[in-house]
Amino acid sequence: GIQVEQSPPDLILQEGANSTLRCNFSDSVNNLQWFHQNPWGQLINLFYIPSGTKQNGRLSATTVATERYSLLYISSSQTTDSGVYFCAVESNYKLTFGKGTLLTVNP
Amino acid sequence: DGGITQSPKYLFRKEGQNVTLSCEQNLNHDAMYWYRQDPGQGLRLIYYSQIVNDFQKGDIAEGYSVSREKKESFPLTVTSAQKNPTAFYLCASSPQINEKLFFGSGTQLSVL
User: Which of A33, A40, A98 minimises the CB distance to B101?
Assistant: First the structure.
């Protein structure tokens, strides 16, 4: 099956810093989604982004499907950005999740 | 408020017991899903349903069962055949299969 690798596995930032999270996948996909899981376990869909670039406030995402990767940018990070960021890719009607990036933003 | 409601938030299972996790959505979504999350891991698909009265096995369906009798509801039963049931269970829905996914708040299942 398709492999999804996220990097880095862990990231610690000072409040106000910027960061880039990466998602690589091993085969062509129909769509890609980014999620944020807060410390209480709730998953929020950040982006549905099969290709191109989207922005939502301080967050933006870019997917280059032909090169099989996606990037999530977080600017001016806040403590509430802490949690785990997952990417998930869809191929043959199946959504496969990466293992996530654990982000800690310190005040 | 529209959303996905999972209950209970915490559940304990005794040896040999079946337990059922509830998932209800009022988003009018056709597709619903159950995922299992183990500590430090990504999510793995247990079952999914594209439409009422239809469901398909995911990657780790053994020891689990589901039903989809109503569009709004997709309960998951963890049977006694599931030997390692301790995990965080997440229900999700999307307008159609593999469109933008929305999650409930999860159920933590533990074995007594």
Answer: A33
pLDDT at residue A64 greater than cutoff 60: yes
Distance between CA A41 and CA A94 in Å, rounded?
22
The pLDDT of residue B1 is: 56
Per DSSP, which regions of B26-75 are E strands?
31-37, 43-51, 54-57, 64-66
| Per-residue model confidence (pLDDT) at position A9 | 96
The rounded distance, in Å, linking the Cα atoms of B30 and B72 is: 9
Q: Is A55 on the interface with B (CB under 8 A)?
A: no
Judging contacts by C-beta atoms under 8 Å, the chain A residues touching residue B44 are: 97
Amino acid at B13: R
- Residue B78's DSSP bridge partners are B19, B64
- Per the CB < 8 A criterion, the answer to whether B4 and B21 are in contact is no
Asked whether the beta carbons of residue B98 and residue A44 sit closer than 8 angstroms, the reply is: no
Give A66→chain B minimum CA distance, Å: 20
Specify the amino acid at residue A83: G
